[in-house]
Amino acid sequence: MSRKSVPSWLHEGARVRDSAQNREGIVQFISEWVDPTTRKAIPHAIFLRPEGGGREWVVADHQALREAEPRRPTGPGSYSRPPLIGSRHGRSTAPGVAPPCTPGAIHAPLAHPKRSTMHSAFRLAAKPRSVIMQPTTQCLPMDCTYCYLPFRNMKHLMPAAVAEAVAAAVNPWAADDPAFEVVWHGGEPLATGREHLAALMAPFKGVQHSVQTNAALVDDAWCEFLMEHGVHVGVSIDGPADMNTHRITLAGRPGFRVTMRGIERLRHRGIPYSAIAVVSDPDPDNAARFYEFFAELGVTTLGVNVEEEEGVNTGSKVADPVRAAEFWAALADTWRGNPVMRLREVQRVVNFAGAVLQGHETAPLPASSLWDPLPTVAYDGGVVMLSPELAGFTDLRFGDFTTGNVLKDGLDVLVAEAEKRTPWIAEFWDGVDACRATCPTFAFCGGAHPANRYFEHGGRMDGTRTSYCTTSKIALLEGVTRHVRTHRP
């Protein structure tokens, strides 16, 4: 069956009726699918999800589907999908909403529509699974060109009173969740100093401490500290020296050698570590050498972030989505040939695909499950929910983005009352709803991140597509899917 044989009304984002199951759904995407029972390849299977969220299902034969009747708004406060008009690349687009996101098409942000809301029920979980702590704003000795932190050259230290206030809420949460994590990040945590960092960690009981470090300050004394406190270590490094050029020191010199020196100390002491790399140029020709660099370093897990526009990093170049998809495909190819580490992004796609095939829930949709509030506690005790990248910034409409301060109210209270206390979150939910209604890859993505929306959509939280969506979600899904098709047994 050719793609042309699929009727024109059947496209990503269309609302259809499955007569075999007697229910309606939104088309997420149309793609090749292998029936897990018969192992037969279906070239144009239709992946559906209930409108508003829920368990995805697959329809092998499009003839079982019918175009659904248009919905009418159900009353005040309800959310109804905007009527679909026009067409671009065979996909309908809602008025005022960015077109569905596809590799190969970069669309300029459109005007933001007036949307009805569906905020009668809270969407944030009552308890987080982790908390991010900013022990200092200083990034000593690095001054990365793509860094989004506004105060990275200032040494603001978190007082012990802030850590004690956070621990008062975290310790009961950790008692119920042995995997609860306290992540020291957002600035260079080792620039805090061993004595002060130990004092900040001391009030916490039964948690797993983690640091995300540039490793430049790692020496034998820090290795002893990390082992003594059982700290998980993540290192920020972008690959071989020629791919690491955006990571420079305050003196303007390349930071590769000082980071590698710290990594060698970790390896010498037998301390396992993960790595996060920022890729400014997702060149598929460099994917193999990029991966093998980390394989040789012996990292346990590699996270890959394509550079994005956030915070004070306003000069990043938007990567070509087709090229980005080719990069992800090449990276998956290399990983498959030498799977010595967990490749975070590839694993996300594999987990998503497995959930679809097994009929399980595939994404953290607010309509069907609660969002982790992911509280970030700044050095001064201010708490930002959902998006660590917003800490330290202010806005005429939203103020400093914080829900409150732990020196005034308990973190448990701030989490429980976040949606009532934080004006920007309601606008963010509008953006999530718009993503759900218009983007065919929402089942995988779950909606653009708050900071990306804000910095790419002129200070709005209800925009849809972002460059992060395009290069790190959609291109990722396309690239890894391409890899799987190529290597299908």
Helix fraction? 25-40%
Report the CATH superfamily.
Aldolase class I
The CATH topology is: TIM Barrel
- Mean of residue pLDDT? 79
Query: For the largest beta sheet, what order do the strands appear in spatially?
Result: 14-13-12-11-10-9-8-15-16-17
Uncertain runs: 71-120, 309-315, 363-367
Distance between the termini: 22 Å
Which structural category fits the helices and strands?
alpha/beta
Into how many domains do the coordinates divide?
1
Number of helices: 13
What amount of the residues lies in strands?
15-25%
What's the total number of strands? Answer: 17
CATH architecture: Alpha-Beta Barrel
Q: What's the overall geometry?
A: globular
Please compute the radius of gyration using only Cα atoms.
23 Å
CATH class annotation: Alpha Beta
Q: H/E order of the elements?
A: EEEEEEEEHEHEHEHEHEHEHEEEHHHHHH
Largest sheet: 10 strands, mixed
Seen as an oligomer or otherwise, the chain set is single chain
Could you characterize the architecture of this molecule?
The protein is an alpha/beta fold. It has a single domain, classed as Aldolase class I (TIM Barrel). The chain is built from 13 helices and 17 strands. The chain has a ten-stranded mixed sheet with strand order 14-13-12-11-10-9-8-15-16-17. Strand 15 and strand 16 form a beta hairpin. Helix 5 crosses helix 6, helix 6 crosses helix 13 (467-486) and helix 7 packs across helix 13 (467-486). The longest helix has 20 residues, at 467-486. It is globular and about 70 Å long.
